[in-house]
Recover the amino acids of this structure.
């Protein structure tokens, strides 16, 4: 969290983590397309020719003033592809809340587990752990016929029983609910 | 610019003096360099203060991207030379150049200036400003830990309402 006294802004950093192709960038794109343009910045994407995140995506979302303070949210996505490890390390630093976007497809379960493990390692690099940090899970791609059941996903990916949302990011279902829930988590842990 | 001491009856414990001193350093640097924009940021990409022309830029986006790019350049130099550099990076643009330079290990200075300005001169003045800024870093850090006091239950419930409205969740 950062307080910008000059503009009376309180800024939170929210990071979308998760395996490659899970739908992190799609979450941001949906928010970008639906929210009142006056409330958001441009969506900046460092991406490959194939539209995969190379470094991070960034967008700021701002809400109306509360008691003279303007809440602002810096939304970042990490690059899920294994080889872009440095981008993940860079972006995760200083996160106030993490949204783990899991890919519900049956054959992606191992990638989800590996990404969660990678997240733990990245946090450990900053002497942080998932136990202390506010985080939530988004089970994305619920529209696909080969989606793993929620109880199975919960068992494999959610040992601490953190809040979760179901989503279809391409259609927007669950996208804003996830963001709201992550912001509430960030607030409650302050 | 000055903290609102009355909100929630809690003083925000912000050292006005530190802030003014930093502002002053940025102002002097930006003016002497005839730069377009000078930003003092933390490595996480938050703009702490800036001076110059912000009409055509979103400061927050620019700072987030600059901090990411600075960090990437440093990572590259670490890979090549095997050590962490954290010093400076110059991007040459079509009309403007961007010079970035670390301030301690946690902060960053970003200067956008006309391509015609001699880079040696820019470097000299920026480094002098960075030296001056360095003495205020401890005091900045101390303030960081004291900022969450107004985020009370009332703030949170109002924030929930704001989110429902902005996110179309009602
Ligand atoms: N069917 C379906 N497809 C989705 C959903 N969400 C995202 N996708 C698709 O999945 C693909 C990858 O989405 P991205 O948002 O780019 O994935 P990412 O997590 O940002 O991937 P990296 O940048 O590589 O880490 C795209 O083709 C999306 O259209 C969903 O809910 N359902
Ligand atoms: Mg992506």
């Amino acid at each position: 969290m950062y307080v910008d006294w000059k503009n009376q802004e309180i800024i939170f950093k929210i990071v979308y983590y998760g395996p490659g192709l899970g739908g992190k960038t799609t979450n941001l794109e949906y928010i970008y397309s639906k929210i009142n343009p006056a409330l958001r910045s441009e969506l900046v994407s460092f991406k490959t020719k194939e539209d995969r995140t190379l470094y991070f995506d960034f967008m700021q979302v701002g809400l109306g003033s509360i008691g003279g303070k303007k809440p602002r949210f810096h939304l970042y996505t990490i690059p899920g592809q294994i080889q872009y490890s440095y981008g993940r390390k860079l972006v995760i630093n200083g996160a106030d809340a993490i949204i783990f976007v899991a890919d519900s497809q049956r054959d992606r379960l191992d990638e989800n587990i590996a990404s969660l493990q990678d997240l733990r390692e990245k946090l450990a690099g900053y002497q942080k752990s998932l136990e202390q940090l506010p985080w939530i899970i988004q089970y994305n791609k619920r529209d696909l016929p080969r989606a793993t059941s929620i109880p199975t996903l919960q068992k494999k990916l959610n040992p601490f029983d953190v809040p979760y949302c179901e989503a279809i990011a391409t259609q927007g279902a669950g996208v804003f609910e996830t963001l709201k829930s992550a912001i509430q988590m960030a607030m409650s842990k302050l | 610019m000055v903290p609102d001491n009355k909100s929630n009856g809690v003083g925000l414990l912000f050292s006005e003096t530190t802030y003014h001193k930093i502002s002053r350093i940025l102002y002097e640097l930006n003016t002497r360099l005839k730069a377009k924009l000078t930003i003092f940021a933390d490595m996480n990409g938050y703009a702490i203060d800036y001076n110059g022309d912000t009409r055509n830029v979103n400061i927050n986006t620019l700072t987030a991207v600059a901090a990411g790019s600075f960090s990437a350049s440093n990572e590259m130099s670490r890979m090549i030379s095997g050590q962490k550099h954290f010093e400076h990076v110059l991007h040459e643009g079509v009309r403007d150049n961007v010079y970035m330079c670390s301030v301690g290990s946690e902060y960053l200075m970003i200067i956008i200036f006309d391509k015609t300005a001699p880079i040696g001169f820019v470097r000299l003045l920026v480094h002098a400003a960075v030296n001056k800024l360095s003495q205020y870093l401890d005091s900045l850090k101390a303030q960081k830990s004291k900022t969450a006091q107004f985020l009370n239950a009332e703030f949170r419930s109002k924030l929930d309402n704001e989110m429902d409205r902005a996110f179309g969740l009602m």
Remarks:
- Residues 1-14 of chain B have pLDDT under 50 and may be disordered.
